[in-house]
Specification:
mainly alpha; globular; 0% strand
């Protein structure tokens, strides 16, 4: 939007040539998202309190969380607005790939909004039934996968899977890529949602992962660098770096209000679409396998829940004191900020390791 206008004026005003550079627009998008969050945040929090849109704490959760009852939730709306607007302002909207990412975010946001509405307004602690929620997530994931596979979003898109550390291992999934994409999106979305259980816990690793995919997107969209690093080039992939920049900026802004003790929680309306956007970007630039490493913390949290449920149903015994894993450490006596910061450290180490795969092929 604004990018196209400034680009059209760059012939008359040479200083505007700087907006041709993805790196500059990425930085501007991050700053725009951060400022938006800091400015809008207080008004949104007051509005959520006015309408009594507060968090419902589970009775079987950690006792230390009971004091959080009534804390405003659905703050994910702040993050999403702070991502969407800078994306519309600073990316090339002629690229369908950008619109696909926005569609993925909007669709999962709508699903998360309905889930939060049922929990907070209707006082239905279950929200949308899990089976129905997964069905809706799967349908959206299939639509995104089909848009990629058909070449609608990325011309001449190759439905291959690229493995880190192996330059020649690129199996072609063919039409199965559509189902594969849906699984990746649903799994990532739910993993992020499960991680969102402590003040600042989910948004920190999300920012870190977004920063890593900012680099991956820029490399995938740069013909020379991608060729040198033996990465499959993706037309328009560089524009996703701008989206990732907006995610980092929005995350920083939201953390201002979500840091311990949190003034607002993101809710499903934030966690579900943020995970979906991350997965959509990863699929578009052919780096979805690295999600297991970049988003390793989300994977660990999700696995802790799966293992806990399987163990209890098969043996009647629990592996962890409480799942997801962050609650296990709380039950062991770790204070909430310690759990959060240490999990951030793990996320940073995993992101750095993932970036090293760019050269190790």
């Amino acid at each position: 939007m604004l990018y196209s206008l400034l680009l059209s004026l760059s012939d008359k005003f040479s200083v505007l040539h700087v907006f041709r550079f993805i790196t500059f627009r990425t930085a501007v998008a991050a700053c725009t998202a951060l400022i938006m969050c800091l400015l809008i945040g207080p008004y949104l929090i007051r509005a959520l309190r006015k309408f009594q849109i507060g968090e419902e704490i589970r009775e079987d959760g950690p006792k230390s969380h009971f004091t959080k009852q009534g804390t405003p939730t659905m703050g994910g709306l702040l993050i999403l607005a702070s991502i969407a607007i800078p994306t519309l302002l600073w990316t090339d909207l002629n690229l369908r790939l950008v619109w696909l990412v926005l569609f993925s975010m909007a669709a999962f946001a709508a699903l998360g909004f309905v889930d939060d509405y049922r929990k907070v307004i209707r006082k239905d602690k279950r929200g949308i039934p899990p089976s129905r929620k997964c069905l809706c997530q799967g349908a959206i994931g299939l639509a995104v996968g089909a848009a990629l596979y058909s070449g609608w979003a990325v011309p001449q898109f190759k439905p291959v899977v690229m493995f880190p550390f192996f330059k020649n291992l690129q199996p072609d999934l063919g039409a199965w890529f559509v189902l594969y994409a849906a699984v990746v999106i649903v799994a990532t979305s739910n993993a992020v949602n499960l991680t969102d259980g402590l003040d600042g816990l989910a948004i920190g690793p999300l920012m870190i992962a977004s920063g890593a995919y900012l680099v991956f997107s820029y490399v995938a969209g740069h013909a020379v660098i991608s060729k040198y690093l033996l990465i499959l080039p993706v037309r328009g992939g560089g524009e996703l770096a701008v989206v990732c920049g907006a995610m980092v900026g929005a995350g920083l802004g939201f953390l201002w209000f979500n840091a311990y003790p949190a003034q607002v929680f993101m809710g499903d309306v934030g966690a579900l679409p943020l995970g979906a956007v991350l997965a959509t970007i990863a699929l578009a630039i052919k780096q979805e396998i690295l999600l297991f490493l970049v988003g390793g913390l989300f994977v660990i949290e999700a696995l802790s829940v799966i293992l806990q449920v399987l163990s209890f149903k098969t043996t009647g015994q629990r592996i962890f004191r409480m799942a997801p894993l962050h609650h296990h450490f709380e039950e062991k006596g770790w204070v909430e900020p310690k759990v959060t910061v240490r999990f951030w450290i793990v996320a940073i180490l995993l992101a750095l390791l993932s970036l090293s795969t760019l050269k190790l092929r």
